[in-house]
Every structure is written in C-alpha cells, then in structure tokens.
Amino acid sequence: MKKNNNIVISNIEHHSNYIPWLNIEKTNDLSIDVKIAEADSNGIIDPLRIDELIDDNTKIVAITHVSNSIGSCQDIEEISKIVHEHEDVYILLDVAQSIGHGEIDIKKS
Fold first, then answer.
1. Cβ(5)–Cβ(61) under 8 Å?
2. Helix-strand-coil split of the chain, %, nearest 5
3. Of 9, 13, 49, 81, which residue is the least packed, with the fewest Cβ within 10 Å?
4. For 14-48, what is each residue's pLDDT tens digit?
5. Which H or E run contains 56?
6. What 3-state class would DSSP assign to 90?
7. CA–CA distance, 2 with 105 (Å, rounded to integer)
8. Predicted confidence band of residue 51 (pLDDT cuts 50, 70, 90)
9. What is the dihedral of CA 23, 24, 28, 32, to 10 degrees?
10. Distances (CA, A) of 53 to 31, 36, 69, 77
11. Sequence-separated (6 or more) residues with CB below 8 Å from residue 58
C-alpha cells in the first residue's frame, strides 16, 4: 500500500480483519485511510454502500462472508461484482465461518 491509499471494511468484521487495518491507519508514515461500511440492524451490509466508499485511492475491500458473532451473511457475489468493476481494487473475503457450510465459487468472487 502507498500513501493516501484506503481500504474498505465493515463494522462487523472479526477483530483479525478489523484491528490490524486500524493499526495500519495509525501509522503516520503510510497515511492509509480505513473506510467503514456500517451494517444495518440485521447485520447486513448494503453492497451499494461498499460501492459508495470505493474511490480512486481504494486498494482493498476486506469483508466477511458470515459473521462469527451474529451469523449475518453478506451478499459476497454482489459485493465482489462491485469491487471488480473498479480497476486495481482487490477483494479479501473472510470465509472462515462459511467455507465448510456451503459452496463458494472463488472464480465468481
């Protein structure tokens, strides 16, 4: 990551996908911003909110598929589609809670 880059995460990420990004943001020499997509009262992140947060400086969208604490399931197909519409933006999917419970087509994501 370079100066003035940003990443997009959600407010319901596991701490292993939340705290490290916030710690990187605090590092003065990198000047990386963390943008946080807020989940609704059911723990669902509107994919359009992800799209609104992505800009020319976004490099990564890091998002969980199924929350380990509240069990909400995100529309990773739609979120992946949105991310891939933006050049040079990568998606990091946390599928630790969902990989053994259903089929995930990584070619679609």
1. no
2. 25, 20, 55
3. 81
4. 988 899 988 888 876 667 899 999 999 999 999 99
5. none
6. strand
7. 31
8. very high
9. -130
10. 17, 8, 24, 18
11. 5, 6, 7, 8, 35, 86, 89
* 38-61: b (≥16 Cβ within 10 Å) or e: ebeeebebbbebbbebbeebbbbb
Tokens coding 75: 């529309």
Q: Where are the alpha helices (DSSP H) in the chain?
A: 19-26, 47-53, 76-84
Q: In this structure, what token pair is assigned to residue 76?
A: 């990773």
Q: Find where tokens 């809670």 sit.
A: 97
For residue 13, give the nearest of 68, 88, 51 by alpha carbon.
Answer: 68
Looking up tokens 């996908």 gives 17
